[in-house]
Design brief:
The complex is a heterodimer of chains A (100) and B (480). By secondary structure, chain A is mainly alpha-helical. Chain A contains three helices and no strands. The mean pLDDT of chain A is 90. Chain B has a domain of 215 residues.
Chain lengths: 100, 480
């Protein structure tokens, strides 16, 4: 029997992996992938709550999230291309124009 | 089945948002036909925004519309006016700045208008879904605006940093929202308060903590401020001004509405979290700002310190404190915009960055130096400027609610902050000019912005009563 807590645990693990990926990985492409993981972990948790509570709000929210996340990643990749043209690198720690 | 009439579909309540969206689309279409002189688009945007001020100040409905999604009350109207004022000033200083930086693309104005729409949606959102969509609209517009000077390595780098940390904070906020939804079974703010009652549940506490972290990122509170200095430095200076005023004000609007409408029964818990955040933010912001040599980075840390003081008004949770937040943000819009306008005028690719470039400015540009000194003293909270009235208001609210320690930390950090603001004034008036850094002539647009912001800064300081009354009246319904 799969309960609400199984889904929440899955979403929590995905969320942690995502946050760790954003904070620890050097490659920006992997950082972007980790961001997607965070958004999808939230979607799992919203969908699970929605089913458990038998209300549709959570499911509707998931649709909004997917749309917003698609727009977000488009902007992220555009900025990444701009950075790559300027600096010829995709590694976060080589982006150190500003210090202080 | 819910009858359609109970949803209260009232297009009048979202009129400012709809009109501003229309204006933004008009600017986008005009951009196709105007090939050379892109600043025409700026004038169109400014005229449209000025016409929008009375509309948004009058759009007040006491009842939630669209099935409880939107609440166009006086609170939203007060914030909408702040956003529109900030957007007008930003566009006015952008026109000359973009020419100076050789950026000739018209979507800039379009994106600024859309970020303003996002802020307005956030201020009037009465549902976590609406709030999130508004927040993302604003944040995504800012990701693009920060990276707008694609020829500059610093601008795109700032954009990337802002994007990664902004998206991370949105993810954390969303995770908090999902737990709040799980604990209460609704995303509507007043419905959440009704469902929860005073009943504590582990999901809810997790939700409150994660939502605090998400908003903490957006308002640049202490442990979540890391993006602020780099993004402020890299972004085009007018965008920095809008980011520090509009984005902060919109995030505080949403912050206040969520915590005061949805979680009033848990003030003891979130009040404690915000107490620590507020104290740490004030201390960190004002201490680190002292060491800064770059004026934009100094203003970035100063904006972090201001976020701490504004948060104090939010956490004391009475009408004086919450009204103080609104009044503070109004004053902040004028004084910070004035300071950034002068920085934008002075700054180009090589000079105008470092505080020592301001040496001897008073002998070459006496009026500009005087205005810069006025804005900085207002930021520091010296009477008779608006900054003093706003700080006084928030601190007295904190003392009124018996937050003596927090108020004491606020006063001490304000005294510390005087040190780094006065450093710039010292350089301008006491040092000899060092030859190379010459401030360009301010054009008509800059003069208008500087005059209006200076007038606003002083006027709000000597005659604050009507604005404070309006602010208190606007927050009353939230405190029920």
């Amino acid at each position: 029997m799969i309960t609400l807590y199984h889904y929440l645990f899955l979403s929590f693990i995905l969320f942690l992996i995502g946050v760790a990926g954003v904070l620890l990985r050097r490659n920006i492409i992997i950082v972007l992938m980790s961001l997607e993981l965070i958004f999808n972990s939230v979607n799992i948790s919203l969908a699970a709550f929605s089913y458990y509570l038998q209300t549709l709000t959570g499911t509707v929210f998931v649709v909004f999230n997917i749309t917003v996340a698609a727009a977000e990643v488009a902007i992220g990749l555009a900025i990444l291309v701009a950075v790559f043209r300027r600096r010829q690198t995709v590694y976060v720690d080589e982006l150190d124009e500003m210090r202080g | 089945m819910i009858p359609l009439s109970s949803l209260n579909i009232s297009f009048a309540s979202i009129m400012p948002e709809m009109l501003l969206t229309g204006l933004a689309l008009l600017v986008l279409v005009l951009d196709l036909f105007i090939r050379e002189e892109k600043s025409v688009l700026g004038y169109v945007s400014v005229i449209g925004l000025i016409a929008l001020i009375p509309v948004s100040a009058r759009t007040i409905e006491a009842k939630a519309s669209f099935g409880g999604m939107v609440m166009a009350d006086e609170f939203a109207a007060y914030f909408n006016v702040i956003f529109i004022i900030a957007a007008i000033f930003t566009i006015l200083i952008s026109m000359d700045y973009l020419k100076k930086m050789n950026v000739r693309r018209g979507e800039y104005y379009h994106i600024i208008l859309f970020s303003t729409v996002g802020m307005m949606v956030m201020a009037s959102a009465n549902d976590l879904v609406t709030l999130y969509v508004g927040l993302e609209l604003m944040a995504m517009s800012f990701y693009i605006l920060v990276a707008y000077r694609i020829a500059s390595a610093r601008s795109v780098e700032g954009g990337l940093k802002y994007f990664v940390l902004g998206a991370l904070s949105s993810g954390i906020l969303l995770y908090g929202i999902s737990f709040t939804y799980g604990a209460s079974g609704s995303t509507n703010l007043s419905e959440i308060a009704r469902q929860l009652g005073g009943f504590q549940n582990p999901f809810l506490i997790l939700g409150i903590v994660l939502i605090t972290v998400g908003f903490g990122f957006k308002v640049a509170a202490f442990p979540f401020h890391v993006w602020t200095p780099d993004v402020y430095e890299g972004a085009p200076t007018p965008v920095t001004a809008l980011l520090s005023i509009g984005s902060k004000a919109a995030s505080f609007a949403a912050f206040m509405r969520v915590f005061m409408v949805a979680f009033p029964a848990f003030h003891a818990q979130w009040g404690e979290i915000l107490w620590m955040l507020s104290a740490a933010t004030m201390i960190f912001g004002s201490v680190v700002a002292i060491a800064q040599k770059n004026i934009v980075r100094m203003l970035a840390y100063s904006s972090i310190a201001h976020a701490g003081i504004i948060m104090m008004g939010l956490l004391v949770y009475n009408d004086l404190g919450a009204g103080g937040v609104l009044y503070y943000l109004l004053v902040y819009a004028f004084m910070n915009m004035g300071a950034f306008a002068i920085v934008a005028l002075f700054r180009n690719d090589r000079i105008g960055e470092s505080i020592s470039d301001y040496s001897g400015l008073a002998s070459r540009r006496p009026v500009l130096s005087f205005l810069m000194a006025l804005f900085l003293l207002s930021l520091a909270g010296i009477p008779p400027t608006g900054g003093f009235a706003a700080k006084f208001f928030v601190f007295s609210a904190a003392i009124d609610a018996r937050y003596y320690w927090l108020a004491a930390i606020g006063v001490v950090t304000t005294a510390i902050s005087l040190f780094f603001y006065a450093k710039v004034i010292f350089y301008m008036y006491m040092r000899e000019p060092d030859g190379e850094a010459v401030m360009p002539e301010s054009g008509v647009l800059y003069n208008v912005v500087l005059l209006v912001t200076a007038f606003g800064t002083v006027f709000l300081g000597i005659y604050p009563t009507p604005f404070i009354d309006m602010a208190i009246k606007a927050v009353k319904p939230l405190l029920m």
